[in-house]
Design a protein that fits this description.
Length: about 200
């Protein structure tokens, strides 16, 4: 199996967990090692470390590397009825990796940037009563245009009267969002644009 990127590893773990779900969603009449091994094999992972670690005890837990930085956690408990409760899932250090925004060609990127900037210009035309609402307008405009607003996170303002965010939104585009709270009205003056 070729070396996987963090995003590919995340997607692999998600697929493995999707395929493991039917095994863990119900009690089993037997220890379903063959079924778990089949899921791992289907996705190019190695079930041998799991098979080597399981013993004949009525309950147990294992956490083994099954390949490419992917780990399998398996717990089992045998009830007095003879049925097994199984919990099995895969994980990796890349489970929080972000899938990048869909790539745009230059024409689509210009059009998307214009759509966002048109919304952001509206924010700057009048003072805003709420910084949170202004931030939400900007975030919604980014997402509607197909940009990734993950890094454009609402900071804990903590009463800051002035602040600035500069964050990537995908496709080599960044958003600048700055604010100033006016002393007399308490409203915010917003300057925001993507470039």
């Amino acid at each position: 199996m070729p070396t996987l990127s963090p995003i590919e590893t995340k997607e692999l773990v998600q697929q493995v967990n999707k395929d493991l779900a039917p095994i863990t969603d119900k009690f089993q009449s037997h220890m379903p090692l063959f079924d778990v091994a089949a899921v791992l094999t289907k996705h190019g992972l190695d079930p041998k470390p799991m098979e080597n670690a399981v013993n004949s005890k009525d309950q147990g837990r294992l956490h083994v590397n099954v390949g490419q930085g992917v780990w399998l956690t398996l717990t089992w408990y045998k009830f007095e009825t003879g049925r097994y409760e199984i919990v099995a899932y895969a994980s990796s250090q890349h489970d929080d990796a972000r899938i990048p925004a869909k790539p745009m060609d230059s024409g689509a990127k210009r059009k998307a940037m214009k759509a966002v900037n048109d919304k952001l210009v509206e924010l700057g035309r009048t003072s805003q009563k709420s910084l949170g609402n202004a931030f939400k307008v900007a975030q919604d405009a980014l997402e509607a245009a197909g940009f990734d607003a993950t890094d454009f996170t609402h900071p804990t303002f903590g009463g800051q009267s002035t602040g600035r965010i500069h964050a990537p939104v995908g496709n080599g585009v960044f958003i600048l969002f700055s604010w100033y709270r006016m002393e007399v009205t308490g409203n915010y003056e917003i300057t925001a644009y993507v470039s």
